[in-house]
Specification:
It is a single chain. With 109 residues, the chain is an alpha+beta fold. The protein has 2 helices and 5 strands. Strands 2-1-5-3-4 form a 5-stranded mixed sheet, covered by helices on one side. The longest helix has 8 residues. The chain is globular. The protein starts with 14 loop residues before the first strand and ends with a strand. The structure holds FE2/S2 (inorganic) cluster. FE2/S2 (inorganic) cluster binds next to loops. The site of FE2/S2 (inorganic) cluster (FES) has 12 residues, from loops.
Length: 109
Amino acid sequence: MESLFPELDLSPKQICKVDYAGTGRSNNVPRGTLLIEAAREATLDVPQQCGGLAICSWCKMEIVTGAQNLSKLTDGEERLREWGKLSERERASCQAEIHGDVTVTARYW
Ligand code: FES
């Protein structure tokens, strides 16, 4: 069926732009890519100790814009918040999937 408003693209983005604030770097990644994978593809180092199990919080990133474009908080991230290892503005990059454009930053860059 043809859209009544073809100029409006209401479909979910399949390619998402990630900006890494303060680094001058950005990249385009397929929808569903983990933040940690996107950053590494942009040749940014992301520390990690627990192997992506949402225990260490070393991989956390602050979301500057586009928090609504990330997957829902996982149980592991909820646990990190309960432990005080993840603030309201932060996500564990080993857990958060990218579903739209987002700008992130991290202390380790
Ligand atoms: S790698 Fe440990 S919480 Fe993400």
